[in-house]
Automatic annotation (TrEMBL):
Residues 39-494 form the Aldehyde dehydrogenase domain. Residues 1-15 have a biased composition (Polar residues). Its EC number is 1.2.1.-. It comes from the Bacteria. GO terms for molecular function: oxidoreductase activity. The active site is at 271. Transmembrane segments: none annotated. Keywords: Oxidoreductase. Residues 1-22 are annotated as: Disordered. This is NAD-dependent succinate-semialdehyde dehydrogenase. It comes from Citricoccus nitrophenolicus. The lineage of its organism: Bacteria, Bacillati, Actinomycetota, Actinomycetes, Micrococcales. It is an enzyme of class 1 (oxidoreductase).
Length: 498
């Protein structure tokens, strides 16, 4: 078994000061109607790389949280009537502020979530791009005009903001999952209440303050942080003033929220879990496939809905691929995300390390071979090493569960039909990847894969200008791209008698 031996270098003595200053810059209260207020309770935010408490933030109860929807509802008419150009310019200012303050926002994200600083910088850039994209979309909301087939009337079709929105985001992309919802909501003329994950509230709290400076009017964006998500969000979802629920998180929670939203027939967008297959055909450029697998597996330390969960390699090249991937994974430095060169940061919490440990144990118990890592690390924080397993049998628990850790699970297939059948044998359908140099196969398999997105000879698909989303139990709706704003618009048809 090869071990990951690289060590990350440590920063200068001023690093703790930089970290404290970044955390101290974040407002920690409940944000409603443009006002920051304290709540009766607070909750700690931990650094997953040390388990230490970074700060305390508001832990709102249902009554305190009600102020956020009150504010969003009160601001709705004014924001909807704000000229699209003005909404666009506010979004453009927010984009520029995020770019200017990228270093501070990235450090806050790394401290609360653990991802390497280089990835956090990438996420800040990605998150900011949603504001730029939707600043451009805000002034392109179109409509329609046509003559009725009978010729006796005219049809006007208008697009109107859906109304106050509830936005719920996960911890794994603390900033981008927020801007991917807030950007189109603002562009469409919707106000919102955003609830970030309790593990990572700081990125969204910092963003709220940036939005304030960018000129977002009071009440247009409101933030509630809480450790009691269910108790706090249920009354807000059932409140008839809420017109839209946009959720990113697990399929399990998504399903329960869909049931709740059904009570008021609320519009919903659901970006849920995945179980991405990563297919490597014998005719693939193996170097490109290895780099693609590395990107699709190790981004966010494997904690991504788009993570390559099942790596399926055609049997004739499987050993060569596994060797090359193992070599590359063994080179990845492990450590705190703030340290230079680190790629393998901590997992989000102790439970995540336990889950990955159990999944690897189960796969090994069923006959998988450990080529790298495979055992938890004895050090403070929630670390699990880069791990490669080969010969993973289909019955292994990790083939049907999101691993959410740095574990590459490799299995083999013989034919294209078999590869497609295995790839589609899951209730999820977020993203699939395939590597081949045969163009016809590339198109054929891309269309046969049951997924909302396909990475054809690419290990990364996310782009603010592209429609992100899944099929089957991976969700409903699309974020980003030209369709992203549709999720926040209603269509109104006016029949004009002549
Ligand atoms: P999660 O447990 O479903 O939580 C997501 C969010 O929902 C958090 O803010 C959470 O708050 C909140 N929440 C939980 N239960 C709730 C309830 N009963 N009512 C209202 N809100 C509730 O997911 P996670 O562990 O944070 O994120 C990982 C999951 O997200 C994975 O399954 C991943 O695949 C998925 N994901 C999907 C996409 C996509 O675009 N498709 C992107 C990223 C992640 P608390 O933090 O307080 O629990």
């Amino acid at each position: 078994m090869t071990q990951s031996t690289s060590q990350a270098t440590h920063h200068s003595a001023s690093q703790p000061d930089r970290e404290s200053a970044a955390i101290a810059s974040v407002p920690t209260g409940l944000y409603a109607g443009g006002r920051w207020s304290t709540t009766a309770r607070t909750m700690p935010v931990h650094d997953p790389s040390t388990s230490e408490v970074l700060t305390e933030v508001a832990d709102a109860g249902p009554e305190e949280a009600a102020a956020t929807l009150d504010a969003a509802a009160a601001a709705q008419a004014g924001w909807a009537a704000t000229p699209p150009r003005e909404r666009s310019e506010i979004l453009a200012r927010a984009y520029r502020l995020m770019v200017e303050e990228a270093e501070r926002l990235a450090l806050i994200m790394t401290l609360e979530m653990g991802k390497p600083l280089a990835e956090a910088r990438g996420e800040v850039a990605y998150a900011a791009e949603f504001f730029r994209w939707f600043a451009e979309e805000a002034v392109r909301i179109d409509g329609g005009y046509m003559t009725a087939p009978a010729g006796d009337s005219r049809f006007l079709v208008a697009r109107e903001p859906v109304g106050p929105c509830l936005l719920i985001t996960p911890w794994n992309f603390p900033l981008a999952m927020g801007t991917r919802k807030i950007g189109p909501a603002l562009a469409a003329g919707c106000t919102s209440v955003i609830k970030p994950a309790s593990h990572t509230p700081l990125s969204i709290l910092a963003l709220a303050e940036v939005l304030e400076r960018a000129g977002v009017p009071d009440g247009v964006v409101n933030v509630v942080t809480t450790s009691r998500s269910n108790d706090v969000m249920t009354p807000l979802i059932l409140d008839p003033r809420s017109r839209k629920l946009s959720f990113t998180g697990s399929t399990e929670v998504g399903k329960s929220l869909l049931e709740l939203a059904a009570k008021t027939v609320m519009r919903t967008s659901m970006e849920l879990g995945g179980n991405a297959p990563f297919l490597v055909f014998a005719d693939a450029d193996l170097d490109a496939a290895v780099e693609g697998a590395l990107a699709a597996k190790m981004r966010n330390i494997g904690q991504a809905c788009t993570a390559a969960n099942r790596i399926l390699v055609q049997d004739t090249v499987a050993e060569e691929f596994a060797e090359r991937l193992t070599r590359r994974m063994a080179e990845l430095p492990l450590g705190r995300g703030v340290e230079d060169g680190v790629v393998v940061g901590p997992l989000i919490n102790a439970g995540a390390v336990d889950k990955v440990t159990e999944l690897v144990g189960d796969a090994v118990g069923r006959g998988a071979r450990v080529r790298l890592g495979g055992e938890r690390i004895d050090r403070p924080g929630h670390f699990y090493p880069a791990t490669v397993l080969t010969g993973v049998p289909a019955e292994a628990e990790l083939c049907s569960t999101e691993i959410f850790g740095p574990v590459a699970a490799i299995s083999t297939f013989e034919t294209e039909e078999e590869a497609v059948a295995i790839a589609n044998d899951t209730p999820y359908g977020l993203v699939s990847y395939l590597f081949t140099t045969d163009l016809a196969r590339g198109f054929r398999v891309s269309h046969a894969l049951e997924a909302g997105m396909v990475g054809l000879n690419r290990g990364v698909v996310s782009n603010p200008a592209a429609p992100f989303g899944g099929v089957k139990e991976s969700g409903v709706g699309r974020e980003g791209g030209f369709s992203g704003i549709d999720e926040f618009l209603e269509t109104k048809y006016i029949s004009v008698g002549l």
